[in-house]
Amino acid sequence: MLFSETLLIALRSIRANPFRASLTILGIVIGVAAVITMVALGNGAQRAIDEQMEALGGDILSISSGNRWSHGVARNELSLTTDDAKALDRDTQHIAEVVPEISGRYQFKFGNRNLNLDTIGTSPNFADVHRFTIAQGRMFTEGDNASRRRVVVVGSEIPNSLETTAANLIGRSAAIRGIDFEIIGVMEEKGSPGWGNPDNDIWIPLNTAQFRVAGDDKINSISARVAENSTVELAMVDIERVLRREHRILPGKDNDFSIYDRKTYLSARQGATEVFTYLLGGIAAVSLVVGGIGIMNIMLVTVTERTREIGIRKALGATRFNILAQFLIESMVLCVIGGALGLALGAGTSMLLAKFAGWQTVVSSSSVVTAFSFSALIGVFFGIWPAQRAARLNPIDALRHD
Fold first, then answer.
1. Distance between CA atoms of 191 and 132, rounded to whole angstroms?
2. CB 74 within 8 A of CB 65
3. What is the pLDDT of residue 73?
4. Nearest to 330 by CA among 352, 309, 347
5. For the chain, first and last CA: distance in Å?
């Protein structure tokens, strides 16, 4: 018997019971849709991390003060200074730019509004190194830093918190720790990398922070951008060499500073997100298996109902393979139809989640192919037993069946 004829018979059988066929494929539809949606959410989370890595700069190293041990107790003391930043800028071969930073959480008062914000004193090249963009106004200059001017650049969320617009803030006065500052710029939205939201931060010149606000010449951290033709590993060795020399640390003694690679942190998050994506996809795939069991159940019922038909076909010369192929194709057609509808439902659900819930979703071609192929395999796996049962029926016994 030709494949086309077998396929036609299978389709006629499905069309003869449309309501039952619809209920049968419902499990497959839900299963495939769940897989597509869950994987799309996981892929969206991974893309978000990739975008954060690109925005933050995978070539930036963070240097912070380390712990000092005193009477068996670790104490975090500020061991970094602006001289360390100057030495790194001057004596390293694998560092392109250095950004010293001093931070504290201070009261920010604008009119009758009060906010408690992370205030970062830094150098004028902070925005370039960290890939920040000024949306309104300007960044403070080296002249502002040298003259310790009381100027401030605020994050993109600050205007919303103050219930005003970014343009309305430029040139206005605000108080930081009771000291008047002029707002000269507003940053574009950056987004949260997972350890704080820079959109809620404010920035002032380093010298202003040290001598007018904090009253301390120590700095909390130094950001270093790796040179274009170098590597993170060489840059870390270079930084350690210079800082150990500046801090007069003897050989064999521990560093009083720490060097962090942001890319390593984000890569770890990406790995965890990938595992989470597989977990979500696996859980969703369980519903596909449940749908496959439903397919097997209804196919067994179909074999019982059509026993006399099977006997007639065998009496007219149909072979075991013909009967096996007919019921197997029928099972696969049900799953393929369910898979196609599930793909449409899953893609639509992902789009709705992205539009109304604000979640980033990515429907990849690999997830579509995998889910669709798996639904077809479900049809083969769970349809083989009913098909074999139909093929093994004795023609005489089948013809006697009422």
1. 11
2. no
3. 47
4. 309
5. 26
